[in-house]
Write a structure and sequence with these properties.
The complex is a heterodimer of chains A (283) and B (217).
Chain A: H1 2-16, H2 22-49, H3 58-61, H4 65-79, H5 89-96, H6 98-126, H7 139-147, H8 150-153, H9 162-167, H10 170-198, H11 201-219, H12 250-271
Chain B: E1 4-15, E2 18-29, E3 33-37, H1 44-52, E4 59-64, E5 67-68, E6 79-82, H2 94-105, H3 110-119, H4 135-147, E7 153-157, H5 165-180, E8 184-188, H6 192-198, E9 201-206, E10 209-215
Parallel strand pairs in B: 3-8, 3-9, 6-7, 7-8
Antiparallel strand pairs in B: 1-2, 1-4, 4-5, 9-10
Helix pairs in contact in B: 2-3, 3-4
Chain lengths: 283, 217
Protein backbone atom coordinates (compact mmCIF):
# COMPACT_ATOMS: atom_id res chain seq x y z
CA UNK A 1 0.00 0.00 0.00
CA UNK A 2 2.88 2.32 0.88
CA UNK A 3 4.48 1.63 -2.49
CA UNK A 4 1.27 2.48 -4.35
CA UNK A 5 1.02 5.75 -2.41
CA UNK A 6 4.62 6.62 -3.28
CA UNK A 7 4.03 5.92 -6.99
CA UNK A 8 0.94 8.16 -6.96
CA UNK A 9 2.83 10.95 -5.17
CA UNK A 10 5.65 10.85 -7.73
CA UNK A 11 3.08 10.98 -10.54
CA UNK A 12 1.12 13.81 -8.89
CA UNK A 13 4.27 15.89 -8.46
CA UNK A 14 4.50 16.14 -12.25
CA UNK A 15 0.93 17.40 -12.49
CA UNK A 16 1.67 19.98 -9.79
CA UNK A 17 4.16 21.55 -12.19
CA UNK A 18 1.60 22.04 -14.96
CA UNK A 19 0.39 25.50 -13.80
CA UNK A 20 3.92 26.93 -14.13
CA UNK A 21 4.79 25.36 -17.49
CA UNK A 22 4.13 27.78 -20.39
CA UNK A 23 4.50 24.92 -22.90
CA UNK A 24 1.29 23.38 -21.58
CA UNK A 25 -0.62 26.65 -21.93
CA UNK A 26 0.50 26.83 -25.55
CA UNK A 27 -0.60 23.22 -26.07
CA UNK A 28 -3.99 23.86 -24.44
CA UNK A 29 -4.56 26.99 -26.53
CA UNK A 30 -3.57 25.18 -29.73
CA UNK A 31 -6.03 22.39 -29.05
CA UNK A 32 -8.83 24.82 -28.17
CA UNK A 33 -8.31 26.70 -31.43
CA UNK A 34 -7.96 23.57 -33.53
CA UNK A 35 -11.04 21.80 -32.15
CA UNK A 36 -13.02 25.03 -32.48
CA UNK A 37 -12.03 25.28 -36.15
CA UNK A 38 -12.93 21.66 -36.96
CA UNK A 39 -16.16 21.79 -34.92
CA UNK A 40 -17.43 25.00 -36.51
CA UNK A 41 -18.75 23.41 -39.75
CA UNK A 42 -20.81 20.93 -37.70
CA UNK A 43 -22.20 23.76 -35.64
CA UNK A 44 -23.03 25.71 -38.80
CA UNK A 45 -24.80 22.64 -40.21
CA UNK A 46 -26.75 22.14 -36.98
CA UNK A 47 -27.83 25.78 -36.91
CA UNK A 48 -28.84 25.68 -40.58
CA UNK A 49 -30.93 22.52 -40.20
CA UNK A 50 -32.22 23.23 -36.71
CA UNK A 51 -31.55 19.61 -35.74
CA UNK A 52 -29.41 19.07 -32.61
CA UNK A 53 -26.31 16.90 -32.84
CA UNK A 54 -25.34 14.04 -30.54
CA UNK A 55 -22.00 14.51 -28.72
CA UNK A 56 -20.10 11.83 -30.66
CA UNK A 57 -17.85 13.99 -32.82
CA UNK A 58 -14.59 12.52 -31.49
CA UNK A 59 -14.55 9.21 -33.45
CA UNK A 60 -14.95 11.24 -36.68
CA UNK A 61 -12.62 14.03 -35.63
CA UNK A 62 -9.77 11.57 -35.28
CA UNK A 63 -10.38 10.27 -38.84
CA UNK A 64 -9.02 13.37 -40.57
CA UNK A 65 -5.31 12.93 -41.22
CA UNK A 66 -4.40 16.42 -40.13
CA UNK A 67 -6.53 16.07 -36.99
CA UNK A 68 -4.47 13.01 -36.12
CA UNK A 69 -1.28 14.94 -36.87
CA UNK A 70 -2.39 17.87 -34.70
CA UNK A 71 -3.48 15.72 -31.77
CA UNK A 72 -0.40 13.51 -31.89
CA UNK A 73 2.05 16.38 -32.33
CA UNK A 74 0.28 17.76 -29.27
CA UNK A 75 1.29 14.56 -27.46
CA UNK A 76 4.88 15.09 -28.62
CA UNK A 77 4.73 18.61 -27.15
CA UNK A 78 3.21 17.24 -23.94
CA UNK A 79 5.95 14.66 -23.35
CA UNK A 80 8.97 16.25 -25.02
CA UNK A 81 10.48 16.94 -21.57
CA UNK A 82 10.54 13.22 -20.66
CA UNK A 83 12.04 11.82 -18.41
CA UNK A 84 10.69 14.82 -16.44
CA UNK A 85 13.92 14.98 -14.41
CA UNK A 86 14.04 18.64 -13.44
CA UNK A 87 15.90 19.96 -10.38
CA UNK A 88 13.00 18.98 -8.11
CA UNK A 89 13.20 15.30 -9.00
CA UNK A 90 16.34 14.26 -7.04
CA UNK A 91 14.52 15.28 -3.85
CA UNK A 92 11.57 13.11 -4.83
CA UNK A 93 13.77 10.25 -5.99
CA UNK A 94 15.84 10.05 -2.79
CA UNK A 95 12.57 9.48 -0.91
CA UNK A 96 10.86 7.12 -3.37
CA UNK A 97 13.78 5.04 -4.61
CA UNK A 98 14.55 4.59 -8.29
CA UNK A 99 12.07 1.86 -9.20
CA UNK A 100 9.04 3.50 -7.62
CA UNK A 101 10.13 6.82 -9.13
CA UNK A 102 10.22 5.22 -12.58
CA UNK A 103 6.81 3.64 -11.97
CA UNK A 104 5.50 7.07 -10.97
CA UNK A 105 6.82 8.57 -14.21
CA UNK A 106 5.25 5.78 -16.27
CA UNK A 107 1.95 6.30 -14.47
CA UNK A 108 2.26 10.01 -15.22
CA UNK A 109 2.63 9.27 -18.95
CA UNK A 110 -0.56 7.18 -18.93
CA UNK A 111 -2.60 9.60 -16.80
CA UNK A 112 -1.40 12.70 -18.68
CA UNK A 113 -2.25 11.05 -22.01
CA UNK A 114 -5.75 10.23 -20.71
CA UNK A 115 -6.24 13.79 -19.43
CA UNK A 116 -5.09 15.20 -22.78
CA UNK A 117 -7.55 13.16 -24.86
CA UNK A 118 -10.39 13.67 -22.37
CA UNK A 119 -9.74 17.41 -22.73
CA UNK A 120 -10.04 17.09 -26.52
CA UNK A 121 -13.28 15.09 -26.19
CA UNK A 122 -14.62 17.72 -23.80
CA UNK A 123 -13.73 20.48 -26.28
CA UNK A 124 -15.35 18.60 -29.17
CA UNK A 125 -18.62 18.56 -27.20
CA UNK A 126 -18.30 22.01 -25.62
CA UNK A 127 -17.92 23.80 -28.97
CA UNK A 128 -21.17 22.26 -30.23
CA UNK A 129 -23.11 23.60 -27.24
CA UNK A 130 -25.97 24.51 -26.90
CA UNK A 131 -26.99 22.40 -29.90
CA UNK A 132 -26.11 19.04 -28.37
CA UNK A 133 -28.67 16.32 -27.85
CA UNK A 134 -27.59 13.69 -25.34
CA UNK A 135 -28.87 10.46 -26.78
CA UNK A 136 -27.70 6.86 -26.90
CA UNK A 137 -27.84 6.63 -30.70
CA UNK A 138 -25.94 8.47 -33.44
CA UNK A 139 -28.80 10.85 -34.24
CA UNK A 140 -29.88 12.47 -37.49
CA UNK A 141 -26.96 14.83 -38.00
CA UNK A 142 -24.21 12.21 -38.19
CA UNK A 143 -26.45 9.95 -40.28
CA UNK A 144 -27.15 12.76 -42.75
CA UNK A 145 -23.50 13.73 -42.97
CA UNK A 146 -22.56 10.10 -43.63
CA UNK A 147 -25.19 9.54 -46.31
CA UNK A 148 -25.12 12.85 -48.17
CA UNK A 149 -22.59 15.41 -49.45
CA UNK A 150 -23.82 17.99 -46.94
CA UNK A 151 -20.50 17.83 -45.10
CA UNK A 152 -18.67 19.12 -48.17
CA UNK A 153 -21.12 22.00 -48.56
CA UNK A 154 -20.40 23.08 -45.01
CA UNK A 155 -16.63 22.59 -45.45
CA UNK A 156 -16.49 19.76 -42.94
CA UNK A 157 -12.80 18.94 -42.63
CA UNK A 158 -13.04 15.27 -41.68
CA UNK A 159 -14.93 12.30 -43.15
CA UNK A 160 -18.05 10.87 -41.50
CA UNK A 161 -17.93 7.29 -42.81
CA UNK A 162 -21.15 5.32 -42.85
CA UNK A 163 -19.07 2.27 -41.97
CA UNK A 164 -18.43 3.64 -38.48
CA UNK A 165 -22.11 4.43 -37.92
CA UNK A 166 -23.24 1.00 -39.08
CA UNK A 167 -20.50 -0.96 -37.27
CA UNK A 168 -20.40 0.66 -33.85
CA UNK A 169 -22.77 1.78 -31.17
CA UNK A 170 -21.88 5.45 -30.53
CA UNK A 171 -20.85 4.87 -26.91
CA UNK A 172 -18.67 1.95 -27.98
CA UNK A 173 -17.12 4.02 -30.78
CA UNK A 174 -16.34 6.85 -28.31
CA UNK A 175 -14.90 4.44 -25.77
CA UNK A 176 -12.83 2.49 -28.32
CA UNK A 177 -11.56 5.64 -29.97
CA UNK A 178 -10.62 7.17 -26.63
CA UNK A 179 -8.91 3.96 -25.52
CA UNK A 180 -6.85 3.75 -28.71
CA UNK A 181 -5.89 7.45 -28.59
CA UNK A 182 -5.00 7.12 -24.91
CA UNK A 183 -2.82 4.09 -25.51
CA UNK A 184 -1.15 5.56 -28.61
CA UNK A 185 -0.53 8.83 -26.72
CA UNK A 186 1.02 6.81 -23.90
CA UNK A 187 3.09 4.89 -26.45
CA UNK A 188 4.52 8.16 -27.78
CA UNK A 189 5.24 9.32 -24.23
CA UNK A 190 7.01 6.08 -23.29
CA UNK A 191 8.95 6.07 -26.55
CA UNK A 192 10.17 9.62 -25.99
CA UNK A 193 11.03 8.76 -22.40
CA UNK A 194 13.17 5.86 -23.59
CA UNK A 195 14.96 7.80 -26.34
CA UNK A 196 15.38 11.00 -24.34
CA UNK A 197 16.79 9.14 -21.38
CA UNK A 198 19.18 6.96 -23.33
CA UNK A 199 20.20 9.28 -26.17
CA UNK A 200 19.04 12.85 -25.96
CA UNK A 201 15.88 14.92 -26.01
CA UNK A 202 16.15 15.99 -29.63
CA UNK A 203 16.29 12.37 -30.80
CA UNK A 204 13.25 11.37 -28.71
CA UNK A 205 11.04 14.15 -30.06
CA UNK A 206 12.35 13.57 -33.60
CA UNK A 207 11.62 9.83 -33.56
CA UNK A 208 8.10 10.50 -32.24
CA UNK A 209 7.52 13.22 -34.85
CA UNK A 210 8.62 10.87 -37.66
CA UNK A 211 6.23 8.17 -36.41
CA UNK A 212 3.40 10.70 -36.28
CA UNK A 213 4.21 11.93 -39.79
CA UNK A 214 3.95 8.37 -41.11
CA UNK A 215 0.19 8.88 -40.82
CA UNK A 216 0.26 11.12 -43.91
CA UNK A 217 1.68 8.30 -46.04
CA UNK A 218 -0.80 5.78 -44.60
CA UNK A 219 -3.72 8.10 -45.25
CA UNK A 220 -2.81 8.57 -48.87
CA UNK A 221 -3.49 4.94 -49.71
CA UNK A 222 -0.44 3.14 -48.41
CA UNK A 223 -2.77 1.22 -46.11
CA UNK A 224 -0.33 -1.69 -45.74
CA UNK A 225 1.85 0.70 -43.73
CA UNK A 226 -0.96 1.01 -41.19
CA UNK A 227 0.11 -2.37 -39.82
CA UNK A 228 3.39 -0.75 -38.73
CA UNK A 229 2.11 2.68 -37.76
CA UNK A 230 0.52 2.72 -34.28
CA UNK A 231 -0.62 6.31 -34.86
CA UNK A 232 -2.97 5.02 -37.60
CA UNK A 233 -4.58 2.64 -35.14
CA UNK A 234 -6.52 5.54 -33.62
CA UNK A 235 -8.70 5.85 -36.72
CA UNK A 236 -11.87 3.75 -36.70
CA UNK A 237 -12.24 4.62 -40.39
CA UNK A 238 -9.09 2.67 -41.13
CA UNK A 239 -9.63 -0.23 -38.77
CA UNK A 240 -11.68 -3.19 -39.87
CA UNK A 241 -14.15 -4.20 -37.12
CA UNK A 242 -15.01 -7.52 -38.79
CA UNK A 243 -11.54 -8.58 -39.92
CA UNK A 244 -12.64 -9.13 -43.53
CA UNK A 245 -10.49 -6.61 -45.43
CA UNK A 246 -6.75 -6.06 -45.83
CA UNK A 247 -6.81 -3.23 -43.27
CA UNK A 248 -5.68 -3.89 -39.70
CA UNK A 249 -8.49 -5.16 -37.51
CA UNK A 250 -9.63 -3.58 -34.24
CA UNK A 251 -8.27 -6.62 -32.39
CA UNK A 252 -4.91 -6.17 -34.12
CA UNK A 253 -4.76 -2.49 -33.10
CA UNK A 254 -5.82 -3.06 -29.49
CA UNK A 255 -3.55 -6.07 -28.99
CA UNK A 256 -0.70 -4.40 -30.86
CA UNK A 257 -0.69 -1.19 -28.84
CA UNK A 258 -0.99 -3.05 -25.54
CA UNK A 259 1.95 -5.29 -26.44
CA UNK A 260 4.09 -2.37 -27.64
CA UNK A 261 3.42 -0.41 -24.44
CA UNK A 262 4.19 -3.46 -22.32
CA UNK A 263 7.48 -3.98 -24.19
CA UNK A 264 8.42 -0.31 -23.71
CA UNK A 265 7.69 -0.52 -19.97
CA UNK A 266 9.83 -3.66 -19.65
CA UNK A 267 12.64 -1.97 -21.61
CA UNK A 268 12.45 1.05 -19.31
CA UNK A 269 12.75 -1.17 -16.24
CA UNK A 270 15.74 -2.96 -17.73
CA UNK A 271 17.59 0.09 -19.04
CA UNK A 272 16.65 2.88 -16.64
CA UNK A 273 18.48 1.66 -13.51
CA UNK A 274 21.69 1.47 -15.54
CA UNK A 275 21.59 5.20 -16.26
CA UNK A 276 22.74 8.04 -14.05
CA UNK A 277 20.12 10.41 -12.71
CA UNK A 278 20.55 13.60 -14.69
CA UNK A 279 18.86 16.86 -13.87
CA UNK A 280 17.54 18.48 -17.06
CA UNK A 281 16.23 21.97 -17.72
CA UNK A 282 12.46 22.28 -17.91
CA UNK A 283 11.27 22.80 -21.50
CA UNK B 1 27.06 -0.66 15.65
CA UNK B 2 30.09 -0.15 13.39
CA UNK B 3 31.69 3.27 13.33
CA UNK B 4 31.88 3.07 9.56
CA UNK B 5 28.89 4.87 8.10
CA UNK B 6 29.91 5.37 4.48
CA UNK B 7 32.67 3.36 2.86
CA UNK B 8 33.96 4.31 -0.57
CA UNK B 9 36.20 1.65 -2.14
CA UNK B 10 38.18 2.33 -5.30
CA UNK B 11 35.35 4.42 -6.69
CA UNK B 12 35.89 5.35 -10.32
CA UNK B 13 33.49 7.22 -12.54
CA UNK B 14 34.14 8.05 -16.18
CA UNK B 15 31.97 10.20 -18.40
CA UNK B 16 33.14 9.23 -21.90
CA UNK B 17 36.73 10.58 -21.98
CA UNK B 18 36.54 12.44 -18.66
CA UNK B 19 37.42 10.76 -15.39
CA UNK B 20 35.31 12.37 -12.68
CA UNK B 21 36.39 10.00 -9.90
CA UNK B 22 39.64 8.13 -10.02
CA UNK B 23 40.07 5.20 -7.66
CA UNK B 24 38.74 7.08 -4.64
CA UNK B 25 38.80 5.21 -1.34
CA UNK B 26 37.68 6.76 1.91
CA UNK B 27 35.66 5.89 5.00
CA UNK B 28 33.32 8.35 6.66
CA UNK B 29 32.71 7.58 10.29
CA UNK B 30 29.41 7.93 12.08
CA UNK B 31 28.47 11.01 14.08
CA UNK B 32 30.98 13.38 12.51
CA UNK B 33 31.05 16.22 10.02
CA UNK B 34 33.27 15.31 7.10
CA UNK B 35 34.40 18.15 4.89
CA UNK B 36 35.15 17.73 1.22
CA UNK B 37 36.98 20.58 -0.41
CA UNK B 38 38.16 21.12 -3.94
CA UNK B 39 37.81 23.37 -6.93
CA UNK B 40 34.84 23.30 -9.29
CA UNK B 41 34.96 20.10 -11.31
CA UNK B 42 37.20 18.34 -8.79
CA UNK B 43 34.66 15.53 -8.30
CA UNK B 44 33.02 16.55 -5.00
CA UNK B 45 29.50 16.60 -6.40
CA UNK B 46 30.04 13.40 -8.38
CA UNK B 47 31.18 11.62 -5.21
CA UNK B 48 28.13 12.90 -3.33
CA UNK B 49 25.78 11.90 -6.14
CA UNK B 50 27.37 8.44 -6.21
CA UNK B 51 26.81 8.08 -2.46
CA UNK B 52 23.15 9.06 -2.99
CA UNK B 53 22.86 6.42 -5.75
CA UNK B 54 22.25 8.97 -8.50
CA UNK B 55 25.40 8.02 -10.36
CA UNK B 56 26.52 4.49 -11.17
CA UNK B 57 30.20 3.94 -10.66
CA UNK B 58 32.33 2.72 -13.53
CA UNK B 59 34.40 0.80 -10.99
CA UNK B 60 34.62 0.21 -7.25
CA UNK B 61 31.78 0.32 -4.77
CA UNK B 62 30.12 2.46 -2.14
CA UNK B 63 28.57 1.05 1.02
CA UNK B 64 26.16 3.08 3.10
CA UNK B 65 25.35 1.51 6.46
CA UNK B 66 26.83 -1.72 5.10
CA UNK B 67 24.59 -1.81 2.02
CA UNK B 68 26.14 -1.62 -1.45
CA UNK B 69 24.67 1.21 -3.51
CA UNK B 70 23.35 -0.02 -6.85
CA UNK B 71 23.48 -3.65 -5.71
CA UNK B 72 21.82 -4.15 -2.32
CA UNK B 73 19.88 -0.89 -2.53
CA UNK B 74 19.35 1.66 -5.32
CA UNK B 75 19.37 4.72 -3.06
CA UNK B 76 20.35 4.81 0.63
CA UNK B 77 17.57 4.83 3.17
CA UNK B 78 17.46 7.43 5.88
CA UNK B 79 19.44 10.08 4.05
CA UNK B 80 18.85 13.79 3.59
CA UNK B 81 20.58 15.83 0.94
CA UNK B 82 21.12 19.09 -0.83
CA UNK B 83 22.94 18.60 -4.10
CA UNK B 84 23.45 21.57 -6.40
CA UNK B 85 20.45 23.92 -6.30
CA UNK B 86 17.60 22.81 -4.06
CA UNK B 87 14.66 22.25 -6.42
CA UNK B 88 11.12 23.04 -5.34
CA UNK B 89 7.72 23.50 -6.92
CA UNK B 90 7.75 27.26 -7.60
CA UNK B 91 3.98 27.73 -7.32
CA UNK B 92 3.70 26.38 -3.76
CA UNK B 93 4.72 27.84 -0.40
CA UNK B 94 7.75 26.53 1.46
CA UNK B 95 5.56 24.62 3.90
CA UNK B 96 3.50 23.02 1.11
CA UNK B 97 6.65 22.01 -0.75
CA UNK B 98 7.99 20.20 2.30
CA UNK B 99 4.60 18.68 3.07
CA UNK B 100 4.37 17.28 -0.46
CA UNK B 101 7.88 15.83 -0.26
CA UNK B 102 7.16 14.40 3.18
CA UNK B 103 3.97 12.78 1.87
CA UNK B 104 6.14 10.37 -0.15
CA UNK B 105 7.56 8.58 2.87
CA UNK B 106 5.18 9.65 5.65
CA UNK B 107 8.11 9.66 8.09
CA UNK B 108 7.38 13.01 9.62
CA UNK B 109 4.42 15.01 10.90
CA UNK B 110 3.00 18.39 9.88
CA UNK B 111 4.09 19.75 13.26
CA UNK B 112 7.65 18.52 12.73
CA UNK B 113 7.73 20.17 9.30
CA UNK B 114 6.60 23.45 10.80
CA UNK B 115 9.21 23.17 13.54
CA UNK B 116 11.94 22.45 11.01
CA UNK B 117 10.96 25.45 8.89
CA UNK B 118 11.15 27.64 11.99
CA UNK B 119 14.47 26.07 12.92
CA UNK B 120 16.06 27.18 9.64
CA UNK B 121 14.74 30.73 10.13
CA UNK B 122 11.73 30.70 7.81
CA UNK B 123 8.06 31.28 8.52
CA UNK B 124 5.94 28.12 8.12
CA UNK B 125 2.78 30.26 7.83
CA UNK B 126 4.12 32.35 4.97
CA UNK B 127 2.07 31.95 1.79
CA UNK B 128 4.88 33.29 -0.35
CA UNK B 129 5.57 30.96 -3.28
CA UNK B 130 9.02 29.41 -3.44
CA UNK B 131 9.39 30.87 -6.95
CA UNK B 132 9.64 34.25 -5.25
CA UNK B 133 12.19 33.15 -2.65
CA UNK B 134 15.71 34.59 -2.61
CA UNK B 135 18.63 32.21 -3.10
CA UNK B 136 19.30 32.32 0.64
CA UNK B 137 15.71 31.43 1.49
CA UNK B 138 15.84 28.52 -0.95
CA UNK B 139 19.02 27.25 0.70
CA UNK B 140 17.38 27.46 4.13
CA UNK B 141 14.34 25.60 2.81
CA UNK B 142 16.71 23.12 1.18
CA UNK B 143 18.27 22.37 4.56
CA UNK B 144 14.80 22.06 6.08
CA UNK B 145 13.79 19.45 3.47
CA UNK B 146 17.04 17.59 4.12
CA UNK B 147 16.55 17.37 7.89
CA UNK B 148 12.75 17.30 8.32
CA UNK B 149 12.57 13.50 8.31
CA UNK B 150 15.37 13.24 10.85
CA UNK B 151 17.77 11.24 8.65
CA UNK B 152 20.94 9.71 10.08
CA UNK B 153 23.07 10.86 7.16
CA UNK B 154 23.19 14.28 5.51
CA UNK B 155 24.86 14.94 2.17
CA UNK B 156 25.23 18.68 1.75
CA UNK B 157 26.81 20.10 -1.38
CA UNK B 158 27.62 23.78 -0.92
CA UNK B 159 24.74 24.40 1.52
CA UNK B 160 26.02 27.88 2.37
CA UNK B 161 25.65 29.15 -1.23
CA UNK B 162 23.65 32.35 -1.38
CA UNK B 163 23.40 32.75 2.39
CA UNK B 164 24.20 36.04 4.10
CA UNK B 165 26.41 36.16 7.22
CA UNK B 166 23.45 35.55 9.51
CA UNK B 167 22.33 32.64 7.36
CA UNK B 168 25.80 31.10 7.41
CA UNK B 169 25.95 31.42 11.19
CA UNK B 170 22.51 29.83 11.56
CA UNK B 171 23.43 27.01 9.20
CA UNK B 172 26.66 26.33 11.08
CA UNK B 173 24.81 26.20 14.38
CA UNK B 174 22.22 23.76 13.02
CA UNK B 175 24.92 21.51 11.54
CA UNK B 176 26.78 21.41 14.85
CA UNK B 177 23.55 20.56 16.69
CA UNK B 178 22.94 17.75 14.20
CA UNK B 179 26.47 16.41 14.65
CA UNK B 180 25.96 16.50 18.44
CA UNK B 181 22.76 14.51 17.91
CA UNK B 182 24.84 11.78 16.26
CA UNK B 183 24.19 12.55 12.62
CA UNK B 184 26.81 11.87 9.98
CA UNK B 185 27.28 14.85 7.71
CA UNK B 186 29.22 15.13 4.45
CA UNK B 187 29.79 18.77 3.66
CA UNK B 188 31.25 20.09 0.42
CA UNK B 189 32.25 23.70 0.60
CA UNK B 190 34.49 26.28 -1.05
CA UNK B 191 34.79 28.11 2.24
CA UNK B 192 37.90 27.23 4.23
CA UNK B 193 36.27 28.94 7.25
CA UNK B 194 33.20 26.67 7.14
CA UNK B 195 35.40 23.64 6.87
CA UNK B 196 37.73 24.63 9.69
CA UNK B 197 34.86 25.58 12.04
CA UNK B 198 32.56 22.68 11.31
CA UNK B 199 34.44 19.65 10.12
CA UNK B 200 35.95 16.82 12.13
CA UNK B 201 37.74 15.42 9.10
CA UNK B 202 38.67 17.04 5.83
CA UNK B 203 39.51 15.56 2.48
CA UNK B 204 40.56 17.38 -0.62
CA UNK B 205 39.69 16.40 -4.15
CA UNK B 206 41.37 17.44 -7.34
CA UNK B 207 40.53 16.20 -10.83
CA UNK B 208 38.64 13.22 -9.43
CA UNK B 209 41.51 12.19 -7.18
CA UNK B 210 41.29 12.20 -3.40
CA UNK B 211 44.47 14.00 -2.37
CA UNK B 212 44.57 14.61 1.37
CA UNK B 213 42.60 13.13 4.20
CA UNK B 214 43.17 14.72 7.54
CA UNK B 215 41.45 14.62 10.87
CA UNK B 216 41.13 18.12 12.16
CA UNK B 217 39.86 17.27 15.62
Amino acid sequence: MDKIRIVFQVCLNNFRKWPTNPRLYVLGLLMILFVKIVDDPIKAFVIATGVPVTPYAFPFLINGWYSVLMFMFGVVLLFCDAPFADEHQPYTLIRSGKRLWLLGQILYVFVASAVYFLFIIFLSIAFLMPHVLFSADWGKVWMTLARTTAGGQFSLSYPVPLRILSSYHPINAMALCFFLCWMVGSFLGLLMYLWNRHLNRIVGALVAAILVSLEIIVYFNEYWLAYYSPISWTSLYLLDPYNISTNPSVTYAVTGILIINAVLIVLLFILDPKKDVEVLEQI
Amino acid sequence: MSEECIVVRNATKKFKETTALSDVSITFERGRIHGIIGRNGSGKTVLMKAICGFIRLTGGEILVEGKRIGKDIDVPKNIGMIIETPGFLPNYSGYMNLKLLASIQHKTSKEKIRETIKRVGLDPDSRKHVGKYSMGMRQRLGLAQAIMEDPDILILDEPMNGLDNRGVADMREILMQLRDAGKTILLASHSAEDISILCDTVCQMDAGVLEITQTSR
